[in-house]
């Protein structure tokens, strides 16, 4: 069984990441996104554990995976068989899951889910050896954007204990407006750029109130791909800088823009 001890002596504060994950095929492809994720993984301090908040796990209440060996979930259809055959055999950490539950009343332990493609399609490039324990935190469908942001704040202490927190979604995600080539609607590019400017300016309140922004209904017809970003912004400490990578909007209405805090 993998354990993650809370001793944070001599541990650097780990960054927190929001990654625009895009298509599940990025797990298999050698492209500008997979290369950027691989290069980032080589630069990051090696974490003791990883906590992922993926767009693809929504629940009634907040849950955290607590199994010792999370399964690889293929939560999609219509892709090549090689993608369904792909496995990311990382361990879990029941001990870390139990600590998260103990610190944050209302979070429940989950023994059923595993890792969906929002997590493994990115992690397989960041940490291809699959040796680091990985947990997933679900998105509570009853929480408001502000409550998701505040839960991100509550998770800050984990960054000082060797836990890398990764939000995985897309700042613009509208498959109904997709164009299946490397191009983008003007409104999609403009929305991603506006969110980027707000993050750079530290205006978290405006990002949390994203529904009030122009073209939000087009850019984010449903919330799940945007909400992981709010956790990562909640993890930003006073004075911490942010950086951006994979800054591109493609396939009509998919923003691959990614954010690093710290």
TrEMBL record:
Keywords: Dioxygenase, Metal-binding, Oxidoreductase, Zinc. This is 4,5-DOPA dioxygenase extradiol. Its cofactor is Zn(2+). The gene is ygiD. InterPro entries: Extradiol_dOase_DODA, Xdiol_dOase_suB. The keyword GTP-binding does not apply. One of its GO terms (molecular function) is stizolobate synthase activity. Belongs to the DODA-type extradiol aromatic ring-opening dioxygenase family. Its EC number is 1.13.11.29. Residues 39-240 form the Extradiol ring-cleavage dioxygenase class III enzyme subunit B domain. Pfam families: LigB.
């Amino acid at each position: 069984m993998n354990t993650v001890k809370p001793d944070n002596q001599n541990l650097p504060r780990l960054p927190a990441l929001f990654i625009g994950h895009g298509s599940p095929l990025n797990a298999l492809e050698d492209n500008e996104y997979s290369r950027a994720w691989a290069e980032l993984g080589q630069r990051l301090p090696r974490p003791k554990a990883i906590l992922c908040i993926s767009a693809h796990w929504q629940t009634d209440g907040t849950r955290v995976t607590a199994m010792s060996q999370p399964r690889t979930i293929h939560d999609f259809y219509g892709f090549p068989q090689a993608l369904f055959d792909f496995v990311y055999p990382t361990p879990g950490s029941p001990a870390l899951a139990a600590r998260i539950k103990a610190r944050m009343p209302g979070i429940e332990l989950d023994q059923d889910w595993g890792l969906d493609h929002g997590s493994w399609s990115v992690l397989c490039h960041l940490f291809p050896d699959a040796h680091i324990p990985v947990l997933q935190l679900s998105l509570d469908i009853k929480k408001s954007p502000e409550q998701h942001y505040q839960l991100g704040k509550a998770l800050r202490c984990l960054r000082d204990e060797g836990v890398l927190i990764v939000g995985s979604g897309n700042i613009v995600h509208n498959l109904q407006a997709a164009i299946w080539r490397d191009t983008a609607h003007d409104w999609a590019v403009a929305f991603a750029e506006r969110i980027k400017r707000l993050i750079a300016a530290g205006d978290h309140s405006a990002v949390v109130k994203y529904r009030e922004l122009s073209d939000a209904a087009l850019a984010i017809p449903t919330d799940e791909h945007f909400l992981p970003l709010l956790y990562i912004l909640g993890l930003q400490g006073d004075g911490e800088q942010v950086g951006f990578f994979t800054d591109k909007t493609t396939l009509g209405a998919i923003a691959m823009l990614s954010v690093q805090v710290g």
